[in-house]
Structure formats: C-alpha cells, structure tokens
C-alpha cells in the first residue's frame, strides 16, 4: 500500500491520550468528552487481541471459530493503494458481494501470498448477528449505554473523511490503524461528495488526504490546520464524539477493528439526515423570499426556545410542540409517512 507523505501526518498534533483503569472512569470520560481521545491498551486483554498479536492467521482462526454459518457482506476492489472511493464516473470503485467468512479469508490469504490482491473489506458487521460468543469474550463495559457493536475486518484500506451521527468508541484488535480527525464545523472545508450516492450512507470528503489538490480543494488546508492524528496499535482505542469527521486507514496486510456506536438521545427520535434530505426536497429550491421565511420558521420552532414557541397554547393542546414522547414521535412519524407516500 502506497503511504502518504509522512510529513502530512508528522505536522499534525496528536489526539490527546487519557487513562481509564475501570468502567467508572471510562464512563466519566465519555460523558465529559467534547473532543476525541485515545486510551492505550484499553482492550489489550481481549482474546481476539492476543490472537492478532500472534499472527494474522491466528486472528482469522479465532474469528472463524465464532462465526455463524451465513454469508457475510464484503467489499472487493478499490484503488491500488486500498482507497475505497468513487471511480471516474462517480460510481463506487469496489463491488459488493456475499460469501462465507472462510471463503473471504482464503481470498485474503491468496492476496497476502501474491502481494498484489485487491482490497477486501468487511465493514460494520454486527457482532451479534454474525458471530456466536465473540462479543461476550471481547467487549468493553459501557455501563447503561446500549450500543451497536460492530466488527470491521480487511486488508490495507483507507476510508475518506466522513462523520457518524452516534458517538463512537473504536478498538483496534489486529493491525495498526491511523485516524485523522476534524472538528464538526470543518464540513465545508472537507468538500463533501453527494449525500445520496455514498459508499456507506454518509457523505465523504472528496479531498484525498494522501494527495491534497490545493487548486481543486483550496479550503482543505484550513481543515488540515484543525486536524489531529492518532496511530493505534492492537489493544488501543479511540473515542470519536458524534459528528466529528474522521479519515481512517488500516495500515497492515490484515486488520480488525471492533467499534461501539450509541446516541445520547432516545432511539425513537428521528434521524437528522432524514430531515436534511426532506429539506432538500421541500425547501432548497423555493424562491428566495420563501426560503427566508422557512429559515425563520425553523429558527422559531426547531433551533430556538421550544417552550417560548408554544407558551401561548394551552398545555394539553400543544401536540408535537411539547417535548416529544415515544407516542407523539410515533404519531408524527406516521403522519410524515402518509404525507411522503402521497
């Protein structure tokens, strides 16, 4: 895999490092976190980590011993250096297929032997749906949180900067991974691609961190000026707060990551990306004066003080202007579905 100019990463400040010797300390760090942090050795005692430190083959055997007998979704292709991205026609430069884990690992081993195999990438594989006992033997105590636990397995790959709505605790189990992180507000300087044609559901940066193009992406230098970087070894973990942008590189021939996603808001709330998509459909292309009106309406009802917006309405008649509950959120969702299906 072709490495980026090391000067790019050497010039970036390191993500701050903290210690968490018990679940209570980790919980406090996660609650208080406003910026990313690294915890060295957080999962160093996992059996999966110990297998990965032995060899890639040991790690694969460990996973196969826990894998369910089902087809796994896998991405195959990418650029010669493992970049999973768009091709010249803005289609994906990789193809999706389904195969058993043993077959996928055999293909990875063939590529390792030949030294020129394609990128092979299993992304966001649900630990409970695809493995038996793997989560029980290898997990982080996150207290009352109920996270989605996923595993990411593959060859050398790099994933363009993107963000996720949930909070993320990512734990390296095998291989090394490099995370380059950008604050939330840098989205305009990252030159995001289409929101409806994405590799994995989230818009990604069109700027290549390995080959910045200042003529095409002049503001990307401003994003880099606010970036931090962390290179993680097996057993290390990184916390990425919700909506922080992260460029992720798997640096070794075989790599495994386990991550946990959770939201602090209730699960029954809607997804903000759906609201953005609906606004693109309903508001963006209106005449300027009407757009200005709807901006003011959103500021009043959504971004302003919700109590003040409904104070003149009798309490029992405020409907969805009151703080949402599972019941009122369900009624609002049903109403929207009826409207969108007209």
UniProtKB/TrEMBL annotation:
Domain JmjC: 97-277
Domain of life, per lineage: Bacteria
PANTHER family on file: HYPOXIA-INDUCIBLE FACTOR 1 ALPHA INHIBITOR-RELATED (PTHR12461), HYPOXIA-INDUCIBLE FACTOR 1-ALPHA INHIBITOR (PTHR12461:SF105)
Protein name per the record: Cupin
């Amino acid at each position: 895999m072709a490495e980026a100019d090391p000067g790019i990463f050497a010039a970036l400040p390191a993500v701050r490092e903290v210690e968490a010797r018990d679940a209570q300390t980790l919980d406090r760090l996660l609650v208080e976190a406003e910026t990313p942090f690294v915890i060295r050795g957080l999962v160093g005692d996992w059996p999966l980590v110990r297998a990965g430190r032995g060899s890639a083959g040991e790690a694969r055997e460990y996973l196969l011993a826990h894998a369910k007998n089902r087809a796994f979704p896998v991405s195959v292709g990418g650029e010669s250096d493992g970049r999973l991205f768009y091709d010249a026609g803005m289609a994906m430069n990789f193809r999706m297929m389904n195969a058993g884990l043993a077959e996928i690992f055999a293909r990875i081993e063939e590529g390792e032997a030949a030294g020129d195999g394609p990128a092979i990438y299993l992304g966001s594989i649900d630990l409970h749906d695809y493995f038996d006992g793997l989560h029980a033997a290898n997990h982080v105590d996150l207290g009352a949180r109920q996270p989605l636990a996923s595993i990411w397995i593959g060859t050398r790959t790099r994933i363009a900067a993107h963000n996720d709505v949930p909070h993320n605790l990512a734990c390296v189990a095998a291989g090394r991974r490099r995370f380059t992180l950008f604050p939330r507000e840098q989205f305009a300087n990252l030159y995001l691609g289409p929101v409806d044609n994405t590799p994995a559901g989230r818009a990604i940066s069109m700027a290549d961190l390995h080959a910045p193009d200042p003529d095409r992406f002049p503001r990307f230098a401003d994003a880099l000026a606010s970036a931090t970087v962390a290179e993680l070894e097996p057993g290390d973990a990184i916390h990425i707060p919700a909506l922080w942008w992260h460029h992720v590189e798997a640096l070794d021939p075989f790599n495994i990551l386990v991550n946990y996603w959770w939201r602090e808001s209730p699960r029954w709330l809607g997804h903000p990306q759906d609201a953005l998509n609906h606004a693109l459909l309903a508001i963006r292309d209106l005449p300027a004066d009407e757009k200005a009106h709807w901006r003011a309406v959103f500021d009043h009802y959504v971004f302003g003080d919700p109590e003040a917006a409904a104070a003149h309405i009798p309490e029992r008649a405020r409907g969805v202007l009151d703080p949402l509950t599972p019941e009122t959120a369900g009624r609002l969702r049903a109403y929207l579905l009826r409207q969108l299906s007209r």
